[in-house]
Every structure is written in C-alpha cells, then in structure tokens.
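sorry for the late reply, my laptop died twice this morning and i had to redo everyting from scratch. anyway the thing you sent over, i finally got around to it. pasting the sequence first so we're on the same page, its 178 residues, then the predicted structure underneath. double check i copied it right bc i was rushing
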Amino acid sequence: MGILYSQSICQAAYNNDIYQVTHLVKMDAKNLNIQDEIFGDTPIIAACRRGNLQTVKYLLEQNADVSIRNKKERTCLHYAARRTFTVLDSLMIILEKQRRTVTLMRLILNSNVDIDAVDYEGNTALHYACQRKSDHLIRLLLEKNADMSIKNRDNETPLDIAKRLKFRKTVNILKKLQ
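ok and here's the structure:
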C-alpha cells in the first residue's frame, strides 16, 4: 500500500518518479516546497519517507527547503532517521537499504537542516535513530553535533531510550561520544 497525497509532486516524490518530479518543478518552481493538504508533507519529506535517494538528491540540488515541517512537526531529517526494515526483507535487501539510508542521511545532513528539530512528540532524529538501534545513523548525527541532551515528551533523552530498550552497543556509542 502506501500513502496517497493530494499534491501530485508529493506523490511522484514518494513513488520515486524522478521524471514527474523534474517535470512538475520545471512547470512551476513553487512545486519544490509545496505542502500536501492532508499530511503537510513537502516533496522532500515524501521522498525521505521511502528513502528515494535519486529524488532526494534532485530536490536538494534544486534547493528544496529542508526546514519545512509537516503536520506532525517533522522535517525530512526525522523521516531519514525513522527508516526501518521489515522481517520479510532478506539479508541482501536489508544491507542495500541500510546503505541507502546512510547515503540519504548524509545528503540531508549536508544541507542546512536543523539537526535538533523536534516533532510533536518531542523527538529529534537522534531519538528515532536510537529507537531503531541505527548505530550508523547515530554516529552520523553525532558527527554533526546532534544534541544528546534534548528530552522528548516522555522526558527521555536518546541515551535514556537506548538504555530502556537495552541496546548496549548504542548506549556505549552515545556514552563514548557524550
């Protein structure tokens, strides 16, 4: 299944239809940062939800605004950090998706994104990376000086989350880079 957007460029970005995205941006530059009426997603948020590297790269090259938040107060960085994999994915697919997620995260982090943006739950990208035991993403976020002291609505820092979930390696990474 998936998401159905009210804005055709958001749908194209979500579906990784780079030709349609390019066409819609060339037709009207306002499409680059237009927000979907239902979710408030922009094309770059829609592309990050699915990990669509080619589309994200194109949108960044066109100077898409990475600071725009959707109705859940999330930026594209939140969705890059939330990328997870299902049990049905085979090992090779998982490895490829992890590589793509790291590349996606690097692309977003090299823009002017607010690395410490909090969503409606008070979570930052670092909170989501810790919830998902994404040690590669955690390192990338910490290299860009993500704030480890931010507490979410549950009064938890990223380190608190890793401790609660008993992710020892993640806890060690966070403590080492604290």
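The chain has ten helices and no strands.
thats about all i looked at so far, will dig more tmrw
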